[in-house]
Amino acid sequence: MERRLAWGAVLWLLRPAYVVLELVVAAATTGDYRLDRDTVSDLGALTCDPRFCSPWHALMNATFVGTGLLLALGALLLAPRLGRIVTALLVVAGLSSVATGLAPVDQSSGLHFLAAAPLFVCQPASLLLLGTRLRAEHPRLAAALLATGAVTSVAAVGFVLGAPVPGVLERLALWPVLVALAGVGESERECHVMSDPNRPVAPKRSRHLLDPADLHASHTRSQGSMESLTRVQTWVISILAVSTILHLSVGAVFIAYFSDADRLDARIGANVIASLIGVLAVACGMLIHRRSPLSPWLALGLLPGIVGAILTFG
Prior knowledge:
This protein is mainly alpha-helical. It contains eleven helices and two strands; from the N terminus they run ααββααααααααα.
C-alpha cells in the first residue's frame, strides 16, 4: 500500500512540467500568437491559422495526453487517500485531457470542446472536495486546495463565458491545479518517507539504563523537536505555495507588457489579474500559517499589478 501511494505521489509531482512544455511550444509558434488572447488548444492545431502557426503541435498534443495520464493514474494510485468521489473526478479530468490531445481543435472543434469540457468542471470540483476532506488532517494544505479550487472555478467560468483575455483565464483555470495536486503528492511522499520501515532508527536504550527521572525531560525535548519541525514544514509549504502563485502573477505582467499597444483592454485586464493573483498568493500564505487572510498585508499582493502597470504604460 505504501509503495502504491508513493508512486501516485511521484506521478503528480511530474505534472507541473506541463507549464514549461507549453511555454516552449508557444515560443516556437510563428505569427501573431498571444498568450493573453489565444487558447492552449491553438498550440495543438495541426494546420496553420491565418494569424499564426504552431510547428510543434505534436509536442503540445503529446503533453495533453501525457499530463492527463499522469493525473488519472496518480488519482487511481492515491485513491485510498482521496476517496471515491475525488478519485472519480480526477480520473475523468485526466481522461478529458487525454481526449483533448487526441482531438485537435482544428480537426473537429465540436469534438475537441466536448472532450475538454470535463477538465474545466472536474478539476476545480475535486480541489474543493479534497480541501474539505483534508481540513482536519492537513489544515494548511486544505486551505491552499480550497483557495485554488475557488480561483480556478471563477477562471473556468469566465473562460467559458467568453470574458476578456481568454488566454489568461484559461491558464488561470489550469496551471494552479498542477501546483496544488503536486503539493498533495509532496505531502503524501513525505508521509511515505517518514513511515518507511527501512529508514534508519536511533538505537533504543537498554531497559536497565532507563532513568525515570529523565522521562519528563525526554518528553519535553521530543515535543520541542516536533514543534520545530512543524514550523519548518509550515514555512517551506508557504514559501513554495506563495512563490508558485506569484509566478502566475509575473506571467500576467509579461502578457500585459507584450500585448499590442492598441489592445488597452488586454493590457489593463492582465495587470488587474496580476494584482488579484498576488493578493491570492498573500492570502494563501497567511492561511497556511493559520492567520486570517483579512489583513493589511494583502496590499502587498497588489505590487505585481502596480509594477506591471508602470512597465506597461510608463
